[in-house]
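Our consortium's second objective concerns turning raw sequence data into structural hypotheses that experimental partners can test. To show how far this objective has progressed, the report includes one record in full. It was chosen at random from the queue rather than selected for favorable results. The single chain below, 239 residues long, was entered without modification.
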Amino acid sequence: MKNNINIISIADENEVLHESVKKLNLLLEKNKDIPILLLLSGGSSLQLIEGIEAKYLTRSLTVTALDERYSSDEKVNNFAQIAHSDFYEMLMRHGANVIDTRVHHDESQNDLAKRYEEGLRTWISKNPKGKIIATMGIGEDAHIAGIVPHNNEVHLFNKLFDSSNWIASYDAGDKNPYPERVTTTLTFLRKIDHAVVYVVGDNKKEALDNTLREENNLHTFPARIVHQMKDVHIYTDQT
């Protein structure tokens, strides 16, 4: 395995969660004296926030979503789910910052994408020595963030996710139960300094295997971007 990828395989699902959170806290501890941008994945990976220690929720921390579902439904929108958590209440109480990706009234999908990208670019411009940390998951189809496979559409895949843009706005159609997506791109994922990837369940085994195979491609298995990222820690119950 490449030096940038560390795989921690633990049979017990609860222990996988425990060790994932432990690693996330260690990364926050290591970088506590500099600005941190923390991007949070939705889905099962979102439960990692429940274990983040309050002492790391400082004014030097900025939190946002790794990808977003263009929906005003608070049960669908990823940031809305974050905002309803105890973690978010602690964030606000400790004066931490957010790049809020909830849909504004009458805000189009493209306008949300523009606001989202401006937020990321502004943070990096203001914090050139800051660190970017992300929690991530891998879908059953090997999607990562909101980047879904485009098996026979290599050009479209590259145009959407591997251009100079950091955020892509698109309609995934029948590829996803929430088709209207606004997501960080492969281009941005390569900028992440540290990623904690949480992959649990027998239904993820094939996706994880395909992610780790060297011969596979990005447009069929987007999660293979982990091979091109800086520092990736995959926690899984798969062996």
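The partners drew two points from this record. The chain has one domain: 5-236. The two ends are 14 Å apart (CA to CA). Both points have been shared with the crystallography group to help prioritize constructs.
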